[in-house]
Structures are given as structure tokens and as C-alpha cells.
């Protein structure tokens, strides 16, 4: 493409889509600023600092790693949200609390198995407050068991919720379903608070610290998060592309009536959607707690808006979009610290959500549904 | 006929004012009975305390539910950023009215009178609402929901940010107080001045039966808040019964048809959104900032969902329903269970500290520990109840208590007259 053509394209973008042009200008500026910061130079203009500052490559990389880890877990949880959005056609506000439920079930299982035989009273173990910190290296078997319990347990819970709440209202409009999910979210969150209390418990901390490329330092728990979430994403990909079930799901996301006419058992596909989405949400929550070390009754609820951001940025209904969107939002949430004070980084992730919804409601990867 | 229908028929037979007054009076009666049952000799003071608190809650949620009803019930705008618009109103009022020479450690403001602050807060909430609505109204309902909730979180995070805790606005030091919050002219003082001035004989009489001054002031404040509710109701009834309101209902029913009739629906939606947000801003001050102090913690998205619960219980689309719903939600679901939990005790059984000990008692066929634990945690469980009620209503009674009175967009009934079975009657 010649320069003239490129310039003309640019003018078309400026004229037709001023919003996109503004976004491009802002990201260009931030990128320039990042380069200046890394180079350690500062550009002054009319006496005020325009660009630059100082930032070491090492701290940039550790921010990237942090963002990537959170983003992977958010992406994992986002898959379920995206699937319910495309197949059941509503924004599930209870998804964040599914994440919490899975995490609590998994951690209670891990904590009790790790604590058996140490003489700690069962009540303390169940309430996650014996003060013990688990890690993948020191307590591999309990952590693995917890991972499985988190997945299986949250599947059981979402299937029960679907049976009680959403199934009687399959044919209602999406706003009614959304409101029902708000009710589910409230009930679920405060049931957890009823059982486990409202305090924040520290349950995990890295048992082993590995330095990669002599610059990035990661713990064994973080590596577990990385490996497990990448494996699960690969599994979802294979499931959707290689199995008949995946094809049926994609067909249903595309057109439910047509899918039913072709003989796809829609109710069974819906059940499998919940199984897949709920299981991944629970595992995502469990892994996030493994990485951050703390758990509380409303962490999934607080995370929900971030998951929504991931799903929308990636394009609602697209599972690959949810994975990529999760990583992108995780990176935004963490890298915003370069330009913004620490109190506002979360706001920047929400700002990205709003900008994407306004400028490109189909998500930055285009409106491809579940494929 | 189900019980709900019977209740609904009875409710319908009453005039609206009677309905609302009767409803609130019966909630007061419930509180009075509770106070007499648990208060002993101190019952009068306890009753005044209960009734005062419940009235403030009803008033606050009623204003919010009315505002949401204008946006959602009449125009179909699914706004779940209520907490954010409340924060805008409350913080604007706070900055305008906070004293210029605050106590040590507090944040200075502009020191203006409260009424200026209230108007400023409403105007600011309306402006921010308009700005939010401008681009967002192109979106589908569920996308609008996500944008508004994200917007409200951004507002909360910004006022929570330490960088704005204290800054200089054109040379005048102001601030939001960051995470510690901000103190400003208290709306409570209005009630206090009122009862200490003209209401002095009343205070003496109340103290005679043992009602404390602060409780009486709180009750007075609640009643003042109900007057604000009545004012808002009147304004909203005027709006929704006007030609403007008819267009709103038409937008809710079918936006394309309304557009093809030559109405600029965007204009109507933005104006409605702004009016609703102004009311939410007012509620932000009068309800959350009642005592003259606000902090970002008070504006978490959760409160938005409580307002939704209130409106859905009452029935979206009906102004009277909004108030009745707010009264039901805040009186019976939000306030009553918590007070019951505090005041009911189970003989000698102490509540166990955690659920494991509670269930352990159950294993030896002793249900008392679990029961005691449940009662001591009823303030947590009431939210489970609210969630379950919300699901039940949306599944079985999507119209709520009064939503079936959802006014049609036309001024005359378009229902076909019932004809006899088989063929046209006039042939």
C-alpha cells in the first residue's frame, strides 16, 4: 500500500469515525510516552512535562506478567459469561458470584485435606482461618484436589440454579432474565457470607520463587495459574472445534430456532453450556485466589465488572474473544499504573469497556459468535 | 384466584393516597408492635427509633424508585448506575456546602447554604446524567446497563482517589476527602431546628413519655423526607400525564413507531434520563448524606440493585407502585429482619461463632445452636431473602404489586370491546 493511499485511508477514518481517531491518537501518545519512559528521557513543552519519566524494563515486565496472570483467570471466567450471553441471550450478573462459590468450595477442600493430620480443629480449617498458607510446591495434592472440587462444585451449583431459576423462564425477555440473575447474585453472595463470614482470609502464598531471564520473578502458584488456564483454554478450543457438541453450541448461538429445527437438543446444549461455563468460572476463581493469596465473600462480585469488560472488549458471544479480552483487560488494569495513580487503574479498565461499547459494540475482534 | 390477585384487587379498590398512607401506617404499626414486644418500659423511645429509621429508609428508597421508574418504567431506559448519579449529587452538595474553615483533618468546601448545595447537586447530577446518556442511549438495553454500572464505578473510584481528596479550584481549596469521606452541612439540622423551634411543645410532650431528642429529630427528618417524596410524586405525575409523558410511554412500547410519528426520541430519552438523575442526586444527599457525612463506600453498586428490587416489588411503570415497593422493600425486607434478629433471643443458647459449631450441635440432634446462629446472622440472610423475593417476583408476578397499572401510551383505551362468541355482533 502506497503512502498516499495510506494517508487517504487515514483521512477517511478521521472523517467517518472521529472516535476511532481519538482512540488511535491517545494510544499513540501513550506508546510514545512509554518508549520515552523506558529510555529514561523526559520531554518538556512550555515548561510542563509532556512525555517521559523513568521506568525500568524489569518493572514493566513484572507489570506485564501480573496483568497477564490476572487476565488469564479473568478470561477463563469470561468464557462462561460469554457463552451464557450468546446461547441463553442474557447478561448473567450472578456469574461473579459463581466464581466466588467455586473458589470457596475448592479452597475449603484444599484446606481441609492439607490440614488433616496437623491437629488443627476442623472448624478453623473449614472457615479457612487456621493461618496456613498453601502453595503448589509444598502442598501439591491438596491444591490439585481443590482445583477439581472448585470446578465440579461450581458446576453442581450452576446446574441447580439453572433448574430453579432460569429454566422456568426460558422464553422470557432478556431483561427479566438479567433481573433474575441479580436476585441469584444477591442470594448466592450472602449465603456465602452466612456460611463463611465477611472477613478476608489469607489462604495461599507462593512456596517457591523462580526468576526467569534474570528479570521476571514468578512464584510456583503463578506458574500453576498460567499452565492450568492455558491448558483449559486449549481444551475449550478443541471441544468447540472438534466435537459435535461444539458445533451444536455454535449453531445455537447463531440461531436457536434453526438449531432446534435441525434436531439439536437445545435443552441439552444449554445444560452443557452451564457445565462448561460454570466449571471454568469456578476454576478461574480458585486460580485467582491461588495467585492473589486472599479470599473473601464478595471478591467475585467485585471482579464481575472486569469480567464483563473482558467479554465485551473481546466481542460478546465469542469464546476466543473472551480469552483475548481477558488478557487485554488484565494488561490494561495492570499497565495503567504506568500513567495513572494506583487508585485509578481499575477505572481505566472500565473506561476501556465503555469506549469499546460505544465505538465498536461488536468487540475489537469483530462480531463473530462463538467461533 | 391466587392470593396475590386478591391482594391486588384490594389494593386497586383504594385511592392512591389512601393506599400509600395505609401501607406506610401498617409498617409503622408493625414497628410499634415490635417495640412494645421487646422494649419493656422503654418501648416508646424504641418505637420512635424504629419508626424514625424505617421512615427515612422508605423516603430514600421511594425517591430513588420514583426516579428509576421514570427512566425504566416509563421510558424503558435500563439504568443500573444509580449509585454513581447519587454520588455525583451528594458530592456536589458536599463540596458546595462544606465549611470553608473545617476542623483539623477535614476537607474544606465553599461554605454555601444547604439549599444552594441541593440545587447544585441536582443540576450537576442532571448534567452528568445527560453526558452519560448522550452516547449511551444508542445501545441496546443490556449494553446500556453495563455502561451505566461501569460509569457509576468510575465515578466512585474517582471520588475515592486520594489525588482529589483536596485540591484547589480556581484558587479555592476544595476536595472530596478521598476514601475518608467529607463532612458538610447536615440535612438533619433542618429537622433539628424545626423541632427545637416550632416543635418545642412536641419535644416536651415526647420526652414526657420517654422519647429521646435524637430519635424525635430522626422521625421528623423521615417525615420531611416523605414530604419530598410527595413533591417528587406530584412532579412526576405531572410529567407522565402530560403529552411529554405520553411520548415516553410510546418510546417504551415501540421506539420505531414513535420515531415515525415525527418524535425525536433521542431528545425525549436524554431529557428523561436527566430528570431521573437529578432526583437520584437529590436522594444521594438527603438519604445517604442525611447526617452531613458521605464517603465513597456508601455508593457501591449494591444500592442500585436494592432500588431495582424495590421498584420490581412495587411494579415498574406505576408511580404509586414505586412508593409502595420502596416501603415494602425497605420496611419489611431490609429493616424488619435485622431488628428481629437483634431482639429475638433463644433462651440461654448463645450463638456459636461459626457455622461448623452450629451444625455440630445439629449432629447431636440439638437444632438450637444452628437456630441461634441463623438468628444472629439474620442481617446477612435478609439479602438472601431479597434475592429470592426478586427471583420469585420476576418468575411469577413480573408486574409486581401495582405494575399491572402500567399506563398505556394512548389516552383512550385501545382494547377491543368484548364481542359475543361466534361472529361479529353487529352483523
SS strand fraction of chain B? under 5%
Compute the CA-based radius of gyration of chain A: 22 Å
Proportion of strand residues of chain A? 5-15%
What is the spatial order of strands in the main beta sheet of chain A?
1-2
The structure class of chain B reads: mainly alpha
Order of helices and strands of chain B: HHHHHHEEEHHHHHHEHHHHH
Helix content of chain A: 55-70%
Main sheet: strand order of chain B: 1-2
Count of helices of chain B?
A: 17
Q: What count of structural domains of chain B?
A: 1
Low-confidence stretches of chain B: 422-427
Structural class of chain A: mainly alpha
Q: What is the CA-based Rg of chain B, rounded?
A: 24 Å
- What is the string of SSEs of chain A from the N terminus onward? HHEEHHHHHEEEHHHHEHHH
Question: For this entry, what is the oligomeric state of its chains?
Answer: heterodimer
- Helix fraction of chain B by DSSP (H/I, runs of at least 4): 55-70%
- Overall form of chain B: globular
Identify low-pLDDT runs of chain A: none
In DSSP terms, counting alpha (H) and pi (I) runs of 4 or more, how many helices of chain A? Answer: 14
Report how far apart the termini of chain B are.
36 Å
- Overall mean pLDDT of chain B stands at 83
Region (Disordered) (chain B): 405-427
GO molecular function (chain B): branched-chain amino acid transmembrane transporter activity
Subcellular location (chain B): Cell membrane
Protein name (chain B): High-affinity branched-chain amino acid transport protein
